[in-house]
Every structure is written in C-alpha cells, then in structure tokens.
Amino acid sequence: MASTELNPSESSTEEKSIPDVLPSNPTSEIPNGGVVAWVQCAGSFFLFFNCWGVVNTFGVYQTFYERSLLPNETSSNISWIGSIQSFLLIFVGIFVGPLFDHGYFRSLILIGSFGVVFGMMMTSLCTTYWQILLSQGVIVGLGCGFLFVPSIAVIPYYFSTRKALAQGLAACGSSLGGIIYPILFQNLQTRIGFPWATRVMAFIILATLIMPIACLKVRVKPGAARKLIDSSAWREAPFLLFSVAEFFGFMGLYIPFFYVQLYAIEKTDIGEHLAFYLLTLLNAGSLFGRILPNFIADKIGPINVLIPCILTAAVLAFAWIGITTPGGIIVFCFLYGFFTGSFVSLPPTIVFTLSPSLSVYGTRNGMLFLPISLGLLIGNPIAGAILRSGWRNVEAFCGVAIVVSGGLLIATRIAKTGLIVKARA
C-alpha cells in the first residue's frame, strides 16, 4: 500500500469528499450560514458552556477538596469525582445518540439541564466524599452527557464547508465556562462559603441554559435511528488508529487541568490566590485554541492541523517538569491550553473525514465516545496515584500519553493517505 503524503490542498479536498447531505432528507440544502444557523451555533455554545465548561472547572474543586473539605482523602480518590463526571459526559453519548436520532432532541436538553442544575444543588449540601461523588460525579456527569450529544449533533444540520469553524466556535463555550466558573467559585467560596458558591453556579447554569432550550431545533425530521456499532469501522486502519489515539490523548490531556493549581502551590512561590487562576489561564488558551486551528482545518484538513498541535502539547507537558517559577507556570498554562484546545473540538470533524458516508457518521462518532471516555476515566486517578512518588513522574506520564497519541495520529494520516492513493490507482 502506497503511503505518499498529500500536499495540503489535496488533503483538504479528499477530507471533504463525503457528500454533506443529511440522509433523512437528501434533497434538503444545508444553509451553511445565516441568522438561524448562527443562532443554533450560539445555542450549541451554551450547551458546551454548561457541560464541558462544568467539567473543565473541576480542577478548582480538586484543589479545594484536597486542602479544605476533604483533607483526609488522597489526590487519586478525589480525582475520581471529576474523572467519573467527564467519563459519563462522553460515555452517556453512546446511548443518547440513538435517542437523538429518534427525535428526542428537546427532551435530551431538558433532561440534561435538570441533571446538571440538580446535581450542583445537591453538591452544595454535601459534606462527605461519597455524597460529592454521587452528586457532582454521577448526577452532574449524567446531565452533562445528555447535553453533549445535542451540542455537537446540531451543527452538521446547518453548516457544510464551515463545519469545523462553527464547531470550534461552539466548543469555545467549554473554554469560556472553564474561565468564568473557576473565578466565580474561587471568589465566592472565600466570601459566602462553599455551599452558596456552588448554588450560585447552579443558578447561572440554569439561566444560561434557557437560550438553547428555547432556540435549538433540528432542521429536518430525524430519519431511522442509527446503529450503536458499525463493525466495519474497526477493520479500517485509519479509524482504528484514530480511536486509540483519542484514548491515549484524553488519558493524559486533562492531568494539568486537574493538578496544575496544586503543583503551583507546592512547587512555585506563585501564591495560593494567584494559583487558583491557573485553571482560568488553561481554559483561556483553550478558547483561542478552538478558533484558529479550526479555521485553518477548513482549509487544509483537520488531521493536518491536529498533529502539530498535539505534538507541541507533548513538548509542553515534558517542559512542565522543569518549571518552578510563577512566570514559567503562567506561560505553560496558556500555551498548553491553546495547543490542546483543538484536541477537543476537531475529532467530530475528523470522524467525518474518516467515514465513507454520512449515513454512518453518527454511529462512528458514538463509537469514538468509548475510547475517549475510558481515557478520561482512568487518566487522572492514575496520575493521582503516581503523585505519591513525586510530581516529575506525573508530568512524565502526561507527556508520554500525549506523545503516544501524536504518534498514532501520524499513523492515522499515513494510513488514510495510503487508502486514498490506492483508491486512485
């Protein structure tokens, strides 16, 4: 099988070769913009704001629990709360996807909104580990899972050639949530205490979910429900390699998001108050990292953009080992956030390029949720357990996981190119 690399313009053309037509209404022309389409993008933005945005906030809770509310629990035990939350956000999507296909779009948003708000309200009443694990980990995680599928599924109904850009703009909601919610929590919990700080966040979540509840809608009637599994996908080298790359990537990706604040407090003289803003810097970098790379991805192809971004993130993860100054950790957080932002926003577009037709896109996107969710589930608890042997080992684990992911992404690109060249021959 030949593996000659395509030039960027050829790559972009081949990666967009799938007819972008909805199977439920083949004659319907996708608007690819306009007021209604961008309103849907805004609604998706607020869903991201309150599912991934909430998950991206857990780092500030991790530090607070370790130092105040749950001082007798290990780092690994506490990280299970956030890991279960992020695991459920993705894993639930495997089963929520078919419900979306059956036409329960609005019901999913309503159930998810209730779950996130109710879970945060219950978290505000918690005083023990198991209570927080159940409310913040399980209930909030389930609610986020119901919101996540509508947040990514609505975009292809309204955008074609601007899909990656629209998806990136919507995904910025998770970064903005990860900027606002940690600042809010840190400032409020020192003034009004943990319970009311968490309740205020729950009220804000409720208020910002009103817009998507009122405005989001699918453009065409849903067709037949998709299958949960497309077994042929696992026999295709590009999709299989990309799935494994996502597993390793997400296993290492969120380690700084959970632990960088604690690291800064213990290993630098940045000060506890300023350290709490490092998570905000990570998410601020991620905000820009979901716009510019996605804009470029529409020009040269999403895999071609993701590979250099994730390899740069790996370099930064290893550089983290030698950072001991406030300035260094601040620069690290912003750059790491920027170069990992595309790893969250580009996969749905990449799955699109790896699918033979749009009729199996939803199924394959759902299948990808499994390796992603498993990586999210085990990565941070493993890091917490490794932390007992020192920070350097945690940072090395993070870097190695991301390097492996980058190598598998390169293999994905080579395999995909080889298939294209073979098909031409």
Structural class: mainly alpha
Could you tell me the radius of gyration in angstroms?
A: 21 Å
Number of domain modules = 1
Biggest β-sheet, characterized? none
**Quick check: average pLDDT?**
84
Molecular shape: globular
CATH architecture: Up-down Bundle
Helix content percent band: over 70%
CATH fold field value: Growth Hormone, Chain: A
Residue ranges: pLDDT <50 for 5 or more in a row?
1-27
Count the E strands.
Answer: 0
Strand content is under 5%
- State the fourth-level CATH superfamily: MFS general substrate transporter like domains
- Helix count from the secondary structure assignment: 18
Q: How would you describe the overall organization of this protein?
A:
There is one protein chain. With 425 residues, the protein is mainly alpha-helical. The chain has one domain: MFS general substrate transporter like domains (Growth Hormone, Chain: A). Helix content is 76%, strand content 0%. The chain has helices at 8-15, 35-50, 52-55, 58-69, 75-101, 105-123, 129-153, 163-215, 237-253, 255-267, 272-275, 278-289, 292-300, 302-319, 326-345, 347-353, 361-386, 391-424. The longest helix has 53 residues, at 163-215. The chain crosses the membrane at residues 35-58, 78-100, 107-132, 138-159, 166-184, 196-218, 239-262, 274-293, 305-323, 329-354, 366-387, 393-415.
In short:
With 425 residues, the protein is mostly helical. The chain is built from 18 helices and no strands.
What topology does this entry show?
Blueprint: H1 8-15, H2 35-50, H3 52-55, H4 58-69, H5 75-101, H6 105-123, H7 129-153, H8 163-215, H9 237-253, H10 255-267, H11 272-275, H12 278-289, H13 292-300, H14 302-319, H15 326-345, H16 347-353, H17 361-386, H18 391-424
